[in-house]
Eukaryotic translation initiation factor 4E-binding protein 1
Amino acid sequence: MSASPVARQAVAQAVPQNIPRRVTINSPAELPNDYSTTPGGTLFSTTPGGTRIIYERTFLMQMRNSPLAKTPPKNLPVIPGVTAKDTEVVHRENGTIVEEPEKPEATDMDQFEMDL
């Protein structure tokens, strides 16, 4: 099967891609500290399918100040001291505050009587 004239032209004019440089590493000290950044601050990664994702530093800095970045995620669980301040947790059921019954005060009576 032959390719269409447009496909042949695209193949003939394909831009040659640079072959990645291979570096031999002899010790763990030669490994980079951060595998997915460049000196300019650009982050890059790949998906399991091989798609390259590149995040430039200027774009990330603009998105840091966006209103969306400043809002908490939906359905965030209430974890005292982590996602909420260390205050009394208000238990809600169906959007209303559930009133808890008062706990009886502890008395100083012994639980068991002992005869000596």
The chain has a mean pLDDT of 70. The helical segments are 5-12, 57-64. Strands lie at 43-46, 52-55, 92-93, 96-97. The longest helix spans residues 5-12.
